[in-house]
Every structure is written in structure tokens, then in C-alpha cells.
Amino acid sequence: IVHGKIKIWFNRFEVLDAFNNIITLSQKECAILELLYREHSKVVDRNTIISKIWGDNNFPSNRTVDNYIVKLRKWCESDSDESIKIISVRGVGYKLTIKEEE
């Protein structure tokens, strides 16, 4: 998947940032990114992320989700054109936006 200067390979757990650095994603990071990408332009609440990524039998905190989002944002922010951006929706969750759609 290519958007602006960002390339994503979900099957390889890798992202190429705007500085041409390949970043290896953990399984959870990649799963969160893929969920947000599939639901782009929609707000995905933290409970949905926890349920779909960790499953119903695991209960990480909302803060755990926030920490993963911080890591994912680092490579997103490498593209000054903001072709892919993860936006916080206060008190709810996160939304991935793709510039071409705005």
C-alpha cells in the first residue's frame, strides 16, 4: 500500500517511512494499523481495538492502546504532507485519515 511517501507491507510487518527507513512492526502494531486502515475515516474506539487485537479474554488497559498508537504515529509523522495520519478522538478512540480522501 502506498500513500504519499509512506509504504506499508502488512504481510511483511514493515513500513517504509518518508526518510526511506524500513521500520519493522510488531504483530500488535501491524494488526492495529491494519484495523485502522480498513476502517479509515471512521473512529475506532479503544474497546473495539482491544477486542479485535487482544481478544475477549485479555484485558490490556486503554493506556496500552495509546502506547501502541504513539509508536505508529512516529513513522506517520515522517511525511510532512501527512498523507496518512492517525487522529485522536478524545474520549473515544482513533481515526486513520488518508490525504487523498480529504
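(the above was protein one; protein two follows)
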Amino acid sequence: MSKSIFREYDIRGIFEKELNEDIVKKIGFYLAKALIKRVPTAVYIAVGYDARLHSPILKNWLSSGINKAGLKVLDMGLVPTPANYFANFNKIDGYSCDGSIMITGSHNPPEYNGFKITLNKEPFFGDDIYALGEDILKDKSIIPNNEVTIKIDCKNRYIDYIVNHFSHLKLNNKEFVFDCGNGVAGVVLREILDRLNIKYKILFEEPDGNFPNHHPDPSDEHTLEDIKKELETGKFNFGFAYDGDADRIALLSSKYNFKGDILAIFFSKHINNPTVIGEVKCSQVMYDTINSYGKAIMYKTGHSNLKVKIKETNASFAAEVSGHLFFNDRYFGYDDAIYATFRALELIDAGFDFDLEFEALPKVYSTPEVNITVTEDTKFKIIEDLKKALQNPPSDFPKIKDIITVDGVRVIFEKGWGLVRASNTTPKLVTRFEANIKENAKVYEDALIKLFNQIKGN
């Protein structure tokens, strides 16, 4: 077994090579045991899966492990990840689950799969996942086949909820384009749009784990080429694109691609006294703008981290640049790209002008994320060494106003900032830079990368 499948936010690996029958059965068994430890009266775990070709097989193996531990599996079949989360907060067909497991490889290549885990309405991640891996590594037992499950219709319960929540929309004079990327958004989207009388065109609707048209990652500009072509025709007011399991969104007009931190500004303007959590990669424009009428909190990257922070602070909303959007205002505080779609349509229905609002924001230049390959053993040490070096930087280093260390190192300069953080899921450092103009962003980038190279050389 490769310990690398047990990651900070979830469990993820290559089907059969890393996620084989023995390992997956034990994952089910030990997750059920972890739930019983947290909720001694636990009875049910809800399990759903995405469009990947091997997801149903993993569901059977996982169910055998859960059954062995003495819990029962509520089988919701093919659903988006947010519909799986939804079961933790809503009774489905008379059943209340005590936890849920979503079988998904998210935006990874087709040979990958994995598990996103919620126990007692809270994400199961970090040290808990690493400890789970240690338990499985030591267990030499064989878990027998027992694939018995209880079928539940979570998909239609979720669809009904979205339709009822947004039944007030009046968008008859507008038309939208949606790119499902052959992921699992296509399982629910058409029916919701039809029932709300919204005009649409859907691209790549059919769930297909081979992802034959493009990779389902809306944070990658290359995957948005098809939807951009549709928007260039002038026929559609906006476009929406989803990742493989529909917990991340891209929202585009014919002029702009609105990232998650910009969307956080737009949504927060329509929430009374908003408290908004952003990750360390979010633009300073987001923090400054929201702080002018509400409260913005900077926190660690990662959907599990943000869900925990929402609960801790009772924040209204949280966002990642990549398109994870978490509504705790009128919703349940988890990342849901389908729900976020209709919150955006609600703004459009109210006359909110996305392009004009974006153009009115302070102008800054932001680099894309740039990853630096290091090793799993050294990535966190490099960050610690970088923190120390920044306490006494070289004489030619740009003036530092502040250093934020909530997740990696975010260095605040006079006219912008630079970020270096260790990825929790890969042997890489993640960098991003922002400044009032491109030249200043380049100065900050060059200075931090030069300092990084000196540290790495030592």
C-alpha cells in the first residue's frame, strides 16, 4: 500500500494499483469505526459516486468494509459531491445519515479515484486521515464480500431543494451556457433548469469517466475554450463550467472569467453584515473590499479547512480562488457549484452587472499559480527556512510591511504581496504574486524566488 494515497483533505490514488480491493475494504471498515467512535449511536453512512468508470466497483468494496464494521450503507448512486454532502443535513427517504463518503477523483486524470469524507457533519481530514492510513497499514486481515446497501434517492431530493429555493427566478429573457465536462453535474443540471424555466445550452452533459472532450478542471483556462467560443457568439448572457464532481465552478461573461475571490465580493454585497473567509491565495482586493462593509478572514487553503473555519466563526461565506464556494448564508456551509450557480443567477435576475462591478474594483495584476517541484520530505522545511530568512532579508530585498504565516508565507510589500506555501497534496511549493502593476509583481516574484533558491542551495 502506498501511504501517499492518504492526503490532507481526502484519500486519492490510482484505481487497482493503489486503490485495490483489500485497501478500499479496509478504508470502509476503519472509516465506519471512526464514525462509531465519534457517534456511538451511529447506524448509517451515505455513499455516492462520480462518473468515473471504476466508481461503482469502489462502492461495492467500500460497502463490504462498512458492513463488516457493523454500520449500514445508504446507497445514493451517481450524484454530485454536494448532493452527497446534502445527505448529512437532510433526511432522505426517511433516513438520517451519521456520515457520508463521496467516491470521486475530482479533477484528477481518469485512472484516479478517491474518497471525500464527512463524519457527524464535519470533514474528516488531516491527522485523522493520516492515522487511518497507519491503522490500515498494520491490518493484515481479509474482509469478506458483503455488498448489501439500502438504496436512497438523494439526487431527486437535492434537485427538489434547489428548485424550491430558487423558484422566484424570472430569467425568461436571458440564456446561459453550461459546460459539465462529462462530469457528474450533468446528472442534475438539466432538470433544475427545466423546472425553473431557464433557457440554456449544455455542453458535454453525459457523465463519462473517460472525459473525452476536455479535462474537467475549470481552474485551467485551457478547459474553458469550448464555453468561451459559445460566449463569443453573443447568444448567451453568461457561462458556467464545473469540475468532475461539481464542487468547483467557473463563471464567465463574454469579457471576463470571474475567479472565486472576485465572486466572493459579489456575493457578499448581497449578504447583511457578511463575514467571509478566504484562503491565502485570494486577492488583497477581496479582503480590502469586504472589510469596508463586513469582515474578511484569511485562512488556510483547502475545502476541509474552510468548512471547519466556517463552523468555528459562523461565517456567511467562504471562497477559494479555484472556484470552491461555500455558502453558509441560506445554506449548509459546504462547497457546492450547483447551488452557487443559482445564487449567481439570482444576482443576475436582480440586475447585478458582473462586468461593471468587476471593472469598478481596484486594478491589480495577479500571476497565475506557479508550482515549484521539491520533495515531500523537504517542502515544509523549506517554508520554515524561508520564514527565518525573511526575519533578516538581504539588503536589496523589497520593503516588507507584514508577513502572514497562517498557511505558508504571504509577504505583504508596499504595492502588493507574494505567497509561497507547501502543497498539502503534492511534493510542490505553490507560489502566487499580486501587485498594482505587472512590473512590481515581477520584482516581488524575483526577490522571493531568489531567496528560495538560496535556501534550497544551502
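Reviewer note on protein two: The two ends are 34 Å apart (CA to CA).
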